Amino acid sequence: MIVQTLLTLMAVVVLALVVQRNLFSVVVLAGIYSFLMATVLVALDAVDVAMTEASVGAGISTVLLLGALYLCGGEEAKPLTRPWLPLVVTLVIVGALVYGTLGLPAFSDPQAPIHTHVVPRYLSGALAETGVPNVVTAVLASYRGYDTLGETVVVFTAGIGVIALLRRARRAKGEGA
Amino acid sequence: MKREPVLRVVGKLLIPYMLMFALYVQFHGDFGPGGGFQAGVVTAAAVIFYALIFGLPAARRVVPEALVETLVALGALVYMSVGFAGLLLGGNYLDYFVLAHDTVHGQERGIFWVEIGVLITVSGVMLKIFYMFAGRRREG
User: Which residue range(s) make up the domain with B122?
Assistant: First the structure.
């Protein structure tokens, strides 16, 4: 019931986001969306993910978007042409995704493949094998340590990419002046 | 916002607790929710908060750019070194149970250092991106 209410609120926020032309409101609404998402995740007992969503989605992203807003001004420009083709492409993709969800197992079905494959082994063995009571940490850092290494390298690459892009822009401007 | 006395005082009071909370999330991640990623973001958020209240130059004095750039690379390096430590001690890459005499102890040690690596890289990258965005001046 709580989850349904929150999801409805999220849909309302998304509609407001689409209609809104003031970019400051858009940033604030995106923050609200992230907080609602984090609350949904808490309601689903996924506290680790909720924490990430609240700190990254609502916290850091909002600050970065506000920083970008300071650089580019606060009002969204009116589109020059009617974007019919993007609308059609979006609707087709939405249709395909909704069609895809029809094939998924029902929500919180205990017989779903994801709950019957390796999860029982993680849940029963994690404490004895790793000595870590939080199974999420055990899976992330130990059983799936290789994946987490990949994620860390992705974050590292993102940082390096931003440095490479923005540094060059600044130097080129300095030479031009 | 540099001249707002209320913000400055409240900020000064809050930032130590934010950093404390980041450390709690980091080292208590084995027992409760949290881990390196979340702790890294909270750490970066504390410094960003400081920068928003006291200005970017003040934040750059506390956490210099050179240090942040080092952190970006250092974290990934720490993580990979844990993998190589496993190799050197006779296991596969990222095998933790060879890191101590007792396999469970080895796992705990490996997870600890891996999470430290994630913390360092994530906080460094978040802070660096903020510095790069906030350091740019408006065009025109």
Answer: 5-134
The two tokens of residue B114 are 């891996």
First to last CA, chain B: 23
| Domain range enclosing A22 | 1-74
Contact A55 B42 (CB under 8 A): yes
Query: What is the pTM for the complete model shown?
Result: 0.84
Q: Which of A144, A141, A133 minimizes the C-alpha distance to B113? A: A141
Q: What is the pLDDT of residues A65-107, one digit of tens each?
A: 888 888 887 777 777 777 889 899 999 999 999 999 998 888 7
* B139 lies in some domain: no
Nearest CA-CA partner of B132 in B26, B19, B56: B56
ipTM above 0.90, yes or no: no
- Using the beta-carbon criterion (under 8 Å), do A132 and B111 form an inter-chain contact? yes
Backbone region of residue B33 per phi and psi (left: phi > 0; alpha: psi in -120 to 50; beta: other values): beta
